Amino acid sequence: xxxxxxxxRSIWRTARAVWxxxxxxxxxxxxxxxxxxxxxxxxxxxxxxxxxxxxGCGTSGAAARKIAHSLCCIECPAAFLAPGDALHGGLGLVQxxxxxxxxxxxxxxxxxxxMIPSLKAxxxxxxxxxxxxxxxxxxxxxxxxxxxxxREPDDFNLLATASTMAVVxxxxxxxxxxxxxxxxxxxQFAIIHxxxxxxxRLLVSRTQEAHAG
Length: 213
Known about the structure:
Blueprint: H1 8-27, H2 29-32, H3 35-46, E1 52-56, H4 58-73, E2 78-80, H5 83-86, E3 99-103, H6 110-121, E4 125-130, H7 136-140, E5 143-146, H8 162-181, H9 186-192, H10 196-212
């Protein structure tokens, strides 16, 4: 059997190629994301009357969890809605006026597609995040964010890496815009983030400001 192990130089070349591909995918968002849709997302989240949920399967689910956490960090309370649980009664969490961020790369994942009629019946507002406007998610979305990359960095163009990073980057931008839209303050951040290095930095800053005052 031939030794198929990569050399360290080959591993480094592979890593560089992945980083270059992912960086290019994020940079291309400025040309591919519809500015009106992005602005609408910010407005919807800033003016929400109900709660916010994010949902997705597999890697999209991981992105949904990260997005929900980021929204919580800027006082836009959000939670991850597990598709499997949602289809077995968990949809009772969602009520009229809630916002549901539905993430699906292809837009037709069975679990996600099966949730849509119930979300519509409950009159939740759907922010659809998919590469296909003609998919179940694309057609159901009240606000559509079409996120599409040229290809994934792996040899088979299958592992959702660049596409997942692009979705997260879109919502990173939405979160920062929300902070500006809602005039989110450092003091607000300090209240909900007392732990870790960030919390310590904020504590030191507030102490210094108190002494200076």
